[in-house]
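Incident log, support desk, overnight shift.

02:14 A customer reports that sequence design results differ from what the structure should imply. Their input is reproduced verbatim below. On-call engineer (initials T.W.) acknowledged and began investigating.
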């Protein structure tokens, strides 16, 4: 029996809704089925996730109560493929997904993948937020772990995902990876993400969740632009609060005015920077709203993360 080319690793928790579609798409891959395996790592689902996985002949591992980075690591431990392909349960890979991933690695041994594609019925929020992308093949700082190809030897050299992080484990992983190899986005490697936020509330909850892992990346990159922007937003917002209090106490309103202008300026500067970066101004107005909510959510997450670290340090 020849060795497998790829091990597809899918973490899952109560993922019955989308997992069946995800696994069916893997069954339609142009890469012959005897050249890859599917490993579903369940986090203690209470729905039919495990039954769906076994119905598609996937290798099923059950590890309840651990974080998503640890789930991916558990899959990597038993993987037989020379390449690890990480996929999320709510992502639908295109038929040539595995072949494109292997072709990209053959072109340059590295870590590769691409940002998620939006579904055809994407709403205004999804179209605006995910319009921020470039085309082609290029070096990058981050590839989402829901569409990520890593040679197994490189994965073990890097040490896998940080299992202590609640979120942002992919960003931290890629930062460590760049110390050993290239991180290359190749937009031919396409998956459609079905789990994008549909409402502003869902968007805020997602960014709040992602923000909880920001400190993990900050240990490796203090010049992280999103973190710097979040810290500035938090400072300006605190200034606004002091300004509002001063205003109602009858003091000067100048601090409130200045801090409000600083918040607006930060959001406008972010949208302008991203517009220059991606040469896409079509969604500038909705992006202004989304970046305000992004910074607000990330600020709350940062405060919470710092508070929890302080608490555990004291106890």
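02:41 Re-run completed on a clean worker. Output:
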């Amino acid at each position: 029996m020849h060795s497998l080319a790829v091990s597809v690793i899918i973490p899952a928790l109560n993922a019955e809704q989308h997992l069946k579609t995800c696994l069916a798409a893997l069954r339609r891959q142009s890469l012959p089925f005897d050249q890859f395996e599917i490993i579903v790592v369940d986090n203690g689902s209470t729905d039919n996730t495990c039954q769906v996985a076994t119905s598609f002949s996937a290798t099923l591992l059950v590890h309840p109560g651990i974080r998503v980075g640890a789930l991916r690591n558990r899959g990597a431990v038993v993987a037989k493929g020379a390449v690890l392909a990480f996929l999320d349960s709510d992502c639908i890979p295109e038929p040539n997904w595995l072949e494109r991933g292997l072709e990209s690695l053959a072109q340059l041994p590295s870590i590769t993948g691409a940002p998620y594609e939006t579904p055809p019925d994407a709403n205004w929020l999804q179209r605006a937020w995910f319009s921020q992308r470039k085309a082609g093949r290029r070096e990058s700082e981050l590839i989402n772990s829901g569409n990520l190809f890593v040679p197994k030897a490189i994965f073990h050299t890097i040490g896998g995902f940080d299992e202590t992080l609640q979120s942002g484990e992919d960003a931290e992983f890629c930062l460590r990876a760049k110390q050993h190899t290239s991180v290359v986005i190749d937009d031919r490697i396409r998956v459609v993400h079905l789990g994008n936020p549909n409402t502003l509330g869902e968007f805020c909850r997602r960014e709040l969740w992602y923000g909880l892992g920001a400190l993990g990346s900050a240990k490796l990159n203090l010049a992280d632009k999103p973190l710097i922007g979040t810290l500035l937003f938090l400072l300006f917002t605190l200034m606004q609060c002091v300004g509002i209090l001063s205003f109602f106490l009858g003091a000067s309103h100048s601090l409130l005015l200045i801090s409000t202008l600083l918040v607006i300026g930060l959001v406008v500067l972010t949208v302008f920077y991203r517009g220059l970066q991606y040469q896409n101004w079509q969604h500038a107005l909705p992006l202004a709203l989304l970046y305000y909510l992004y910074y607000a959510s990330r600020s709350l997450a940062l405060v919470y993360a710092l508070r929890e670290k302080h608490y555990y340090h004291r106890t």
